[in-house]
């Protein structure tokens, strides 16, 4: 698990290569089974890529750390814009899309996000600081831009 927590591992092949370089003789099939047993899962990173992670917030009841494609698609299709004031980010969505978009944000488990509240077409995201709010706005817009490129 030290390999996963100390570096960015995007695929099981990356994990196999990293373990082999440390002298651990494994195969992809072995890693696949061990990943499940060790409760290592893929999570979305701040830049939108996926990587294996062992992180769970200590102050919360553990949630599934994987953001499903369905939730990400809901976010991508529902997101319109966002802005911030202090440690609050206000996200505008298509009518009726705020709840699934908020669930997607919550599922990302970004440490700087305290929580979300969803209305019908607006989400309030509470962050830990002004800098975190600025960063979240940039992330949301970056995620939206990546979808527009595809």
Question: How much helix, percentage-wise, in residues?
Answer: 40-55%
* Assembly of the depicted chains: single chain
Would you tell me which CATH topology of the largest domain applies? Gyrase A, domain 2
| Rg, alpha carbons | 17 Å
CATH architecture descriptor name of the largest domain: 2-Layer Sandwich
Q: Overall mean pLDDT score?
A: 80
Q: How far from one another are the termini? A: 33 Å
The helix/strand order is HHHEEHEEHEEH
CATH class of the largest domain: Alpha Beta
Question: If strands are numbered along the chain, what order do they take across the biggest sheet?
Answer: 3-4-6-5
Q: Strand tally, please?
A: 6
Beta-strand content bin: 15-25%
Stretches where pLDDT is under 50 for at least 5 consecutive residues are 56-65
Number of helices: 6
Shape: elongated
């Amino acid at each position: 698990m030290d390999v996963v927590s100390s570096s960015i591992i995007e695929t099981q092949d990356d994990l196999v290569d990293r373990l082999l370089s440390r002298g651990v003789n494994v195969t992809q099939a072995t890693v696949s089974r061990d990943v499940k047993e060790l409760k290592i899962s893929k999570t979305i990173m701040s830049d939108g890529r996926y990587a294996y992670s062992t992180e769970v917030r200590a102050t919360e009841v553990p949630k599934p750390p994987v953001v499903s494609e369905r939730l990400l698609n809901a976010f991508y299709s529902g997101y319109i814009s966002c802005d911030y004031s202090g440690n609050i980010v206000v996200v505008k969505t298509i009518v009726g899309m705020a709840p699934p978009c908020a669930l997607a944000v919550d599922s990302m488990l970004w440490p700087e996000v305290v929580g979300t509240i969803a209305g019908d077409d607006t989400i309030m995201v509470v962050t830990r600081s002004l800098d975190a709010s600025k960063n979240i706005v940039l992330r949301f817009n970056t995620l939206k831009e990546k979808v527009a490129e595809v």
